[in-house]
Structure formats: structure tokens, C-alpha cells
Amino acid sequence: MAFWWPIIVLAFAYAICRFLLMLIPPNVPSIDVDASDVLDDGNQTQENSFIYIPPRGRTQQSDRKVQCYEPATMKYLGFFPALTPAEVKERVAQTRKAQKIWAKSSFKQRRQFLRILLKYILEHQELICEVSSRDTGKTMVDASLGEIMTTCEKITWLLSEGEKWLKPEYRSSGRSMLHKKSKVEFHPLGVIGAIVSWNYPFHNIFNPMLAAVFSGNGVVIKGSEHASWSGCFYFRIIQAALAAVGAPENLVEVITGFAETGEALVSSVDKIIFVGSPGVGKMIMAKAAETLIPVTLELGGKDAFIVCEDVDIPHVAQVAVRAALQSSGQNCAGAERFYVHRDIYTSFVNQVTKIVKSVSAGPPLAARYDMGAICLQEHSEKLQHLVDDAVDKGAEIVARGSFGHLGEGAVDQFYPPTVLINVNHTMKLMQEETFGPIMPIMKFSTDEEVVKLANDSRYGLGCAVFSGSQRRAKEIASQIQCGVAAINDFASTYMCQSLPFGGVKDSGFGRFAGVEGLRACCLVKSVVEDRWWPYIKTKIPKPIQYPVAENGFEFQESLVEALYGLNIWDRLRALVNVLKIISEQNPVATSKRND
């Protein structure tokens, strides 16, 4: 016992010291970011105070300008240039120069960059959410959940574990290489390109940027033309934080434009990350094939939300409505197909109907609404087409939410939260990605049936399974073809930033977030070296040196048996033969060398 006392005292003292160190706040400088032109204080200039009417049925690309407006009010926000291919290549070239310097930075400097960002985010949550809300129509609560929490979680995970997963990782060397050390090194790829969607403009820019910069890369991000206004403001935050740690200029760039801008980016970088539709994802992949760069694609989703008969109905109904209506269709991880066991189908639908009828939609910054606007122009027409198709094929609308006060020019930017029953898989609503506040609910009778239904989709991003038996829920989820699954919860996988995120089938491939996403920004290099250098060096055994001895193959056979034989006696016998062959002189080989 006397032996253990000193160890216990030292361990206790160490724990106390660690605790005391946690009480000392880190020295994190503050940064100043000009936000005067993004705050809606009611004093907009006349130039920026009119209602914007976007052209219908054609792209803005011919205008060389990315026009920006608030989808909830149609107020004009300004414009940004649509960069030409030559301008994109110049931005990438500048980032490449900066990256060569940043690649030599320490993890201490990179962590300080993250801490500065985190401090600014925590102190300016309302500003960040308001900018996101104005540009995409989402509510402040949805912006906090999808923009702030996920980004803060990613930063804290990188601070805690990022360096550990980027350090060399030693692996076993196997039987034939016992005298060697084997390791995997993770080096920066160079310049990462990212083309991201509009649904979470803050997080979609910060997500690839954080992983790329922390792993020593530069990054050029093309934000969506539907969220360029907010993206360019968020870029200022990144620039200020980089300057505060002495990072080289142009290490991170945020560019604006349309399709040709994105094509030029794919052609210029060392890896591309794309978040968007399957159709555009295929074009990105084809373009990337020209330069053979790695691609990560996070594409569409049609997530299944499965409710077994043994659940707490009021609780799960509330979660289901949140999953369906999240950000009024801006739910990149939202559920779009709801399968409810027939024994509780009526009760569940009644509970959902009650909740949805209490939901109100309206301009998110004008009052307290549960749901905001739809970001994409003319998307409400697509949603109505899907609902009409379902109704024509036998579906029934049982509930719709209400609208608040809408401006005359913004009516088309809103769609009422809608619940449909009696749906089936012949309806487009159950097959095509909706991206809207629509909740189609279908019955199922057995676990086998619901697994088959859930897999009857060309998408495979995620699923959520609810059951009073956690074992049953896990068994169902394990059979669903998707990249992420939540058991008795919804979208919780994305809040665990240690986990990779991505899908299968038309939902894409590759992963971001987690260890896999961080290392995907790296050149993964395998390295083997002598374990006891210079005392033991690798030499070619004499029987297989050139010119190869007559018994060279016999030597190889015995060596393979000695290393990999199935029982110890065969291996020992083979080892004796190996040693015998090495010790013997080969007169034929000797005479050849003498000649």
C-alpha cells in the first residue's frame, strides 16, 4: 500500500492543477469587424431601399452581377461581381502563395485563430443570425441552431482534438517488417476549393474553411449566388481573425459568381468540396476529372423519419414537425418522408395537425414567427406542383399553418406548412427532394416493410428512427442505406462534430466533419523507416541478390512459410531452412561473380 500512496497523491495533484488551469481564461484578443452596412437600422439610403423584382425564367449571369435581396421582404441588398475565370484563377494563385507560408505555421497559431473566431461568434450571435436571416429568410432561432451551434461545436472539437488527428499516426509493421517503423503522415494538400449552398450561409462557409485552415491549407470558397450578401460579410470576420494571428494575406478567399465562376474554381484547386444538388454535383465531378483532383460531394437528401408504435406520441410529433419545417425548407438535413406505424397513425396525425395549425410564417425579423421565407425564387411553385401531384393521386391535406403580415412583393416567397396523409411512393412528393415545409405521412405495418420503404429512394443521406426499444430502433437504422442515422432523435449526428457527415447513392460520397473530414484535406503519406538505424540496416538476402542464386526461389518459399505459416512447427521448420540456405555458399553464383 505504501507504494501506491505517492502515485495517488501525484495523480490528485495533477488533477487539481489541471482544474486550476481551466479557471484561468485564455488570452484571446478581440477583433473589430465593420458591420455598419449590414445592419438594418431603418436608415438605408434611397439607393438600397427599393423592392427588388428578380427576372423570372432567366439567370442573372449575363448581367455580370450577383443581385442580392431579402427573400422575406424583397428589399434590395446590393450586388457583387460575378468573377470571370481569369479572376478566379488569379485569386487561387494568390491563395497558393499564402498557403506555402501557412503550411509552416504551428498548431498553437492555428488554435489561436480558432479561439479568436469563437470569441467573436459568441459575442456577436445576434448579428450573425440577423445577417443570415435577412439573406435567406430563416428565423433567428433556426439561424442559431443551424449556424451558431454547429460552428461553435466544430471549433471546440478542432481545439480539443484537431492536432491529435493531424500528427503522424504509427501503425503496425507486420511480420516481414518487424525491423521497421511504419507511420502515416498528414500534409496539407495546398488550396482547397469549396462551392457551397445557400441554406446555412454562415456554417457552410466556416465548415470547409475551418478544416482547411487548421490542416495547413489555403481555401477559396464560392458561396451561393442566393446568399452572397451574407457570405461576403462573414468573410470579413475570417479576414480579421487571420490578420490577428499574423497569417498571410489571401489565405482564405470568398468569391461570388455563377456557373462559370464555379467551373474555373474546380479547374484551379487541389481538391473540391461541393454542397448542392445531384445534377450540379455530377458536373463538378466531370470537371474535376480533367485535373484528377479529389472530390467530396454532399448532395440532396430525402431522409426517412420512422415512428414505431411504442413511442411517446406528443414528444415525437413535436420533433417530427421541427424536422419537417426547420428553416421553412432550408433543412439540409431535414426529414422529408414520414413513416408511422398503423397502430398509432391516427393519433400521431392528430397530434401533428394540432402543432402545425399553431405554426405561423412571416418575415422573421418583423415579428415572432415560427417559420420564415423560402430563399429560392419560384420554389413555392415547385412545392405546390408536388402537393398537387400527390392530391391528384389520392393524398389528402389535413393541416396547414398560417401566415402573418406579408409584403405584397414577397407573397411568392412563402409557403404554408402542410401535412398530407394517404401518401404513397407513386407520388413525386415521396421521391423528389422537396426542400420545403411539407410533411407527408405514410403508414407501415412491420419493421421489414418500413426498411424497404425507407430504402426505396435514390437518396441516402440520413434517417431518424424512434422506438420505445432502443435495440429495435438501432436494428431498423442499421438496415437503412444512408450515411448518418439518429436513434430516438433527429439531426443529432451533425452536432457531434467528431463524426463524419455525408451520404450514399445520389446524396454523394466522401465525408466532411470529424476525423475523416479533417484528414480529407490532407495528402496522406505512408512512411517506413528502419527501427534501429544505424545499428540494423536493411540488406537484400544473399540468395536473391543479383545474380539470383539457383536456390533463390526455395529461399523465398521457406521465408514465406516462416513468416505466415499456420502453425508454429511449420514456421520453425521453414525458418531453419531459411538460415541453412543463407549460411550455405553458392558455388554457381560465386563462379559467375568471379567470371
Automatic annotation (TrEMBL):
CDD domains from the UniProt entry: ALDH_F15-22
Q: Which residues participate directly in catalysis?
A: E298
Q: Name one GO molecular function term.
A: oxidoreductase activity, acting on the aldehyde or oxo group of donors, NAD or NADP as acceptor
Q: Keywords of this protein's UniProt record, alphabetized?
A: Oxidoreductase
Record keywords: Oxidoreductase included?
Answer: yes
List the InterPro entries hit by this protein, alphabetically.
Answer: Ald_DH/histidinol_DH, Ald_DH_C, Ald_DH_CS_CYS, Ald_DH_CS_GLU, Ald_DH_N, Aldehyde_DH_dom
Do the record's keywords include rRNA processing?
no
Taking every annotated instance into account, which residue ranges of this chain make up the domain Aldehyde dehydrogenase?
61-527
Against Pfam families, the record matches this protein to: Aldedh
Q: What PANTHER family does the annotation carry?
A: ALDEHYDE DEHYDROGENASE-RELATED
- What this protein is called in its record is Aldehyde dehydrogenase 22A1
Species for this entry: Hibiscus trionum
